Amino acid sequence: MTNHNQWNADDYAKNSSAQLNWAKELIKKLSLIGNETLLDIGCGDGKITAEFASIINNGSVLGIDSSKTMVELAQNKFPPVEYPNLDFKLMDATAINLNHSFDVVFSNAVLHWITDHGSVLKGVRNHLKPHGKLLFQMGGKGNARELLLIIDEIITAPDWKEYFLYFTFPYSFYGIEEYQRWLPENGFKAQRVQLIPKDMQHQGKEGLKGWLRTTWFPYTNRIPQELTETFLNTVVDRYIQRYPIDSQGLTHVKMLRLEVEAYAIER
Question: pLDDT tens-digit profile of 129-150?
């Protein structure tokens, strides 16, 4: 959601199965009736947003994303003629500006790309109906710690450190304490704020490399294009050396997801 030009939409669509599975788990927690209005923040390629549209067949669903390529891919994959209750718009999550309100605002695997969550929450509150519901899941404090330690070792090594001078950590992995403070400050009553362990699985070395190439581009974009594969192979090989592929051919990365469920307080 942060940089409009970084996402490879087609690559993301091929390497985001874990995000889709986690989103489906989240959707069940909403207990949707089928007549709601719902906003999906950071809709990406639209798979999850279209899932909502299939459930909310008597309501409406809007997906927003700050990546033009993602929004265009979603619009092409899920056209109005097939999904009349579904729409997609190009919009930044920190500057939500719409002319209608929603029963539910949802976001999965997106908000760790954004530093200013106060602006997100303010915009969400301004577009929620009285007692409307918010359900977010994002990378939380301690997310992918083992993988990040390996990446930090590599980017400070002689072969790579020249490309990472003045590099700033690109993710905002917040914890429970921050959201317990931010929710009431922005007009919400917290129902549940949790850090939930997740096992990110990929099919062998190539699956892990595809995920890294797709969603860890703040690192790969620092490197000359002709060295990208070498860098990715270095990261993956070292990770697999420490955390071997299992008997089913899967890699495992320990993730920590911050899950936030809250209701709008009536003004």
Answer: 999 999 999 999 999 999 999 9
Q: Looking at the domain 9-144+170-202+255-264, which fold is it?
A: Rossmann fold (3.40.50)
Residues whose CB falls within 8 Å of the CB of residue 206, separated by 6 or more in sequence, listed in order: none
Q: List, in order, residues 6 or more apart from 103 with CB less than 8 Å away.
A: 36, 37, 38, 59, 128, 129, 132, 133
* Radius of gyration for the alpha carbons in the chain, expressed in angstroms and rounded: 19
Quote the Cα angle for 82-87-88, to 5°: 125
* Domain spans of the chain, in order of start: 9-144+170-202+255-264
Q: Among residues 119, 65, 71, 127, which one has the least CA distance to residue 97? A: 127
CA geometry: angle at 71 spanning 199 and 100, to 5°? 100
> Of 167, 174, 98, which is closest to residue 137 (Cα–Cα)?
174
